[in-house]
Design goal:
CATH topology of the largest domain: Jelly Rolls
Distance between the termini: 36 Å
CATH superfamily of the largest domain: ZPR1, A/B domain
Structural class: alpha+beta
Order of helices and strands: EEEEEEEEEHHEE
Bound molecules: zinc ion
Helix content: 10-25%
Low-confidence stretches: 165-169
Strand order of the largest sheet: 1-2-3-4
Number of domains: 2
Largest sheet: 4 strands, antiparallel
Number of strands: 11
């Protein structure tokens, strides 16, 4: 199915939106959406989970470097929280579904932090430096923390714990 929408970037009615439904491992039934603007070249793609299994809560405790390799599938409706680091990612706006490991989640927080820092300039620099240092220690496995993923539609899951061997999964 192809639709023509208004481009959020250049405002022209030349955004070609394609959608198709399919099923993938971990997320089940999904809608894959890609949009491309013929005028300015703006591109966006997303995977929207269509299933609803009711609210779920996943907790991953990270106490050593190996735990950072735990792989999670996070749907577009789930929030991610790391209480020890005061970090929270809400499924607002154009939130994407993704599969990554715990280290990948920390990197996403770092990227988000950089964006905020650029926007607000140097006013809160020391505060951002402090948070960044905390994330760095966490990425090195030197500071234990907990990752809490809450999904109102239950489409997020722990794909693989590091402890489980490849063959057993
Ligand atoms: Zn455009």
């Amino acid at each position: 199915m192809t639709k023509i929408n208004t481009c959020p970037y250049c405002g022209k009615k030349s955004l070609e939106l394609r959608e198709f439904e399919t099923a993938v491992p971990f997320f089940g039934k999904v809608l894959i959406m890609t949009s491309l603007c013929g005028s300015c070249g703006y591109k966006h793609s997303d995977v929207i989970c269509l299933e609803d299994h009711g609210p779920s809560k996943l907790v991953v405790k990270v106490s050593k470097a190996e735990d950072l390799k735990t792989v999670v599938a996070r749907s577009n409706t789930a929030s991610i929280e790391i209480p020890e680091l005061d970090l929270r990612l809400d499924p607002a706006g154009q939130s994407q579904s993704f599969i990554t490991n715990i280290e990948g989640i920390l990197m996403r927080f770092e990227e988000a932090l950089e964006k905020i820092e650029t926007l607000r300039n140097s006013a809160k620099k020391s505060q951002y430096d402090r948070i960044r240092r905390k994330i760095e220690l966490a990425r090195e496995g030197k500071s234990p923390f907990t990752v809490v993923i809450q999904d109102p539609r239950g489409n997020s899951t722990i794909v693989r714990n590091y402890k489980i061997s490849e063959s057993a999964s």
